[in-house]
TrEMBL record:
Origin superkingdom: Bacteria
Cross-referenced Pfam families: Lum_binding
Enzyme class: transferase
Organism of derivation: Salimicrobium halophilum
Assembly and interaction partners: Homotrimer.
The protein, known as: Riboflavin synthase
Domain Lumazine-binding span(s) in chain numbering: 1-96, 97-193
Length: 213
């Protein structure tokens, strides 16, 4: 499990693509301080397992499902990536619950500065927009952010200068694709309502009436 608080920006040292699989090596420093084989590392929000490592690099294997469901296919040697180690037991929980399992790829449709913030409007795959609410949580390229608006199949997020500087989102532009992870609690609620909620007398209207959604 992760929190969406990015620890450092690393870079892709090498990437070997084999049809819909990849062997990826990253260069980093902070996340390698206590790395072990088999550790989970989030790369742009994607949970991957360390297969080998050195003092300055870590390598991973990317399976077809990850290749198809993320923006990894757009990465290349030299690409900058968000990095976060899995949350240690007893660690400070600064973001929100992030699993590292990407739900889909969104596209930045606008980027608008306002005072000290920059607003990003992100177009989502059609089947994901229902999971987001105003002031809810979203992970974009692994970064924990707050949803400030939901309209149709788009969400609005706002980045402060610190986030712009310390994550790869600061260099993203209109048209760029980003990995999206929906709020896990929202997904569970939606699943409950659709699969068993109405049979037990719990409906979406009931949850809204009682302040749950």
């Amino acid at each position: 499990m992760f929190t969406g608080i990015i620890e450092e920006i690393g870079s892709i040292a090498s990437m070997e693509q084999k049809e819909e699989t990849m062997d990826v090596t990253i260069e980093a420093s902070v996340i390698l301080e206590d790395v072990k084989e088999g550790d989970s590392i989030s790369i742009n929000g994607v949970c991957l397992t360390v297969t080998t490592f050195t003092d300055t690099t870590a390598s991973f294997e990317v399976m077809p499902e990850t290749f198809r469901a993320t923006n990894f296919k757009d990465l290349k040697a030299g690409s900058r990536v968000n990095l976060e180690r899995a949350l240690a037991a007893g660690g400070r929980f600064g973001g929100h619950i992030v699993s590292g399992h990407i739900d889909g790829v969104g596209k930045i449709v606008s980027k608008t500065p306002e005072a000290n913030a920059v607003y990003y409007e992100i177009e989502l795959p059609q089947d994901l927009s229902r999971y987001f609410i105003h002031k809810g949580s979203i992970a974009v390229d692994g970064t924990s952010l707050t949803v400030f608006g939901v309209k149709g199949d788009t969400v609005l997020i706002s980045l402060i200068p610190h986030t712009m500087e310390h994550t790869v989102l600061g260099n993203k532009e209109q048209g760029d694709e980003v990995n999206i992870e929906c709020d896990m609690i929202g997904k569970y609620i939606a699943h409950f309502i659709e699969r068993q909620g109405s049979a037990e007398g719990v409906s979406e209207a009931f949850l809204k009436e009682n302040g749950y959604v």
